[in-house]
Write a structure and sequence with these properties.
CATH class of the largest domain: Alpha Beta
Number of domains: 2
Distance between the termini: 26 Å
Strand order of the largest sheet: 7-6-5-4-3-2-1-8-9
Number of strands: 9
Order of helices and strands: EHEHEHEHHEHEHEHHEEHHHHH
Helix content: 25-40%
Radius of gyration: 19 Å
Strand content: 5-15%
Shape: globular
CATH topology of the largest domain: TIM Barrel
Bound molecules: iron/sulfur cluster
Number of helices: 14
CATH superfamily of the largest domain: Aldolase class I
Structural class: alpha/beta
Largest sheet: 9 strands, mixed
């Protein structure tokens, strides 16, 4: 595993912003029609070849709905042929047929991720704003299980479903999914801050996830809630859990350690813009004119984001800033400053700043050492 200064752990490509769902929180403000300025098939092939120069990061095909592109299967094939561990996050629409899921498997996709935002049709479809999405999600998961294609479920926690996470987790368990990826809202695109939880409620969800992770037959990870790692680290210390504890949280947390927007993570938009995250739409270049590898390694934006000592407010003083660092996307969305402290964290760092001095004195831990084997990990859907 290379240092995050050299290569991302995760590359997300938004193939298109077209999608036939209309979710209330959509980062991409997706609409039904494709943008004529999307990267072409040839440009997509070149992008994948460039990603391979990083080594073997996890390659996530997302959208919009990747199935809105007729060339999605040749692109998937190319990605797998190049040796990239490839995952896809299709939308649960009539395009997600059994034939399409067969196609993913035939191309060699390692995992398919679908979204589930409520435990029943009324809550899920209300959020996705298209009737039948819940039923299609269930069908897709059933079929993937039948043919042996590993699946992941993504859930965005908002005010509308925070009281129903236990019910959703039961469906995750029943589905046979390998990973439950729990997204915390970033107020960008169609998402608004009023849908978001309070910082205190984040902690309550962390507690629920942590306890669940001790017995769940699936892994759990969070997206845009980097402070879940702080929560887990403190719980483990309080519980004096042994290093070889078999439960999921330490494993998944270890694999995620230090990953943040622009740090182990890079997002390519449908038109080729290079962002630290899909939730942080600040461009450091465009793959049509710039080298993705060079931008990731050397652009001031990415380099600044990778150094936790640059963080402002309490995140900059926090002893967990290298493990966590707060959501740079949320800070940007709510304050306009991607280095600001995460407004949804309750933690108060040590008042004397000793955490900061102590961490600076220590040699930096390899951020993602021993992370994978990847296929267990996190194809995530940055939507
Ligand atoms: S969040 Fe995803 S599934 Fe929903 S409209 Fe946006 S792209 Fe489509
Ligand atoms: S203060 Fe910032 S770095 Fe510390 S735990 Fe909270 S979000 Fe993470």
């Amino acid at each position: 595993m290379k240092s995050f200064d050299e290569a991302p752990f995760l590359v997300i490509w938004e193939l298109t912003q077209a999608c036939d769902l209309a979710c209330v929180h959509c980062r991409a403000c997706a609409i039904a029609d494709r943008n004529p300025f999307e990267l072409s098939t040839e440009e997509g092939f070149r992008l994948l070849e460039t990603v391979r120069e990083f080594g073997d990061p996890l390659m996530v095909f997302t959208g919009g709905d990747p199935l809105k592109r007729p060339d999605v299967f040749p692109l998937l094939e190319k990605s797998v042929q190049l040796g990239l561990r490839t995952t896809i996050t299709p939308s649960a629409t009539p395009l997600l047929t059994e034939a399409a899921i067969d196609g993913f498997q035939r191309c060699g996709v390692a995992r398919m991720a679908v979204s589930l935002d409520g435990p029943d049709a009324a809550s899920h479809d209300g959020f996705r704003r298209v009737e039948g999405s819940f039923a299609r999600t269930a069908l897709a998961l059933n079929y993937a299980r039948r043919i042996g294609l590993p699946a992941q479920i993504n859930t965005t926690v908002t005010r509308h479903n925070v009281g129903r996470l236990a019910e959703i987790s039961s469906l995750v368990r029943d589905s046979g999914a390998r990973l439950w990826s729990v997204f915390f809202l970033v107020a960008t695109g169609r998402a608004s801050a009023s849908q978001d939880l309070t910082a205190e409620e984040y902690e309550e969800v962390f507690a629920f996830l942590y306890e669940l992770s001790k017995t769940a037959p699936f892994d759990i990870k969070t997206t845009e809630a980097q402070h879940y790692r702080r929560y887990v680290a403190r719980q483990r210390k309080a519980e004096r859990r042994p290093a070889d504890a078999r439960h999921a949280p330490p494993d998944v947390i270890q694999r995620q350690a230090g990953i943040n927007d622009g740090k182990g993570f890079v997002f390519i938009s449908h038109t080729g813009e290079i962002y630290p995250s899909g939730f942080l739409p600040v461009s450091a270049g465009n793959v049509r004119r710039d080298s993705l590898v060079r931008v990731y390694r050397h652009s001031p934006l990415f380099r600044t984001l990778r150094n936790a000592d640059n963080l402002h407010g309490k995140c900059g003083e926090c002893e967990y800033r290298n493990l966590c660092g707060g959501s740079r996307s949320r800070s940007f969305a709510l304050t306009g400053d991607y280095l600001a402290e995460d407004p949804r964290c309750v933690y108060i760092p040590k008042a004397d700043g000793s955490g900061k001095r102590a961490e600076r004195a220590a040699p930096p831990a390899p951020p993602a050492a021993g992370l994978e084997p990847l296929v267990q990990v996190l194809p995530e859907s940055p939507r």
